Amino acid sequence: MSEFCKAWHNITLEGAKEVRNRALLKASELGIPVSVVVVDRAGVILLMETADSAPPGASEASIMKAKGASRYRTATHTTAEFLKTIPAQLAQHALSLPEVCALQGGL
């Protein structure tokens, strides 16, 4: 491979299922009803599961978090922490960018 071409590693469906299973297990241990979304590197949803007792809006929030983390290649809590360090007007502008999400939970 040349320096201009890199392997495009992506999560498989089996890998996505494993991520989902681990997330649901951890949420169960903590007693938190959640919505889990697993996306590929391009932000395409591979699978999604929402607990029956998850709060309203959990599904939409989990999609935003998954796509935001994928697009910007960083956990969404890191984005939230960064936005606290810049002027409010600039932070508002940053939040208007496509799929920027500053909610904790997107990895």
What topology emerges from the helices and strands here?
Layout: H1 13-30, E1 35-39, E2 45-50, H2 58-72, H3 76-83, H4 88-95
Antiparallel strand pairs: 1-2
Outline the structure in words.
The chain is mostly helical and 107 residues long. The chain has a single domain, classed as Haem-degrading domain (Beta-Lactamase). The protein has helices spanning 13-30, 58-72, 76-83, 88-95, and strands spanning 35-39, 45-50. Strand 1 (35-39) and strand 2 form a beta hairpin. It is globular. The protein starts with 12 loop residues before the first helix and ends in a 12-residue tail after the last helix.
Number of helices: 4
Strand content: 5-15%
Number of domains: 1
For the record, give the distance between the C-alpha atoms at the N and C termini, rounded to a whole number.
Answer: 29 Å
Instruction: List the strand order in the largest sheet.
Output: 1-2
Structural class: mainly alpha
Largest sheet: 2 strands, antiparallel
- The CATH class label is Alpha Beta
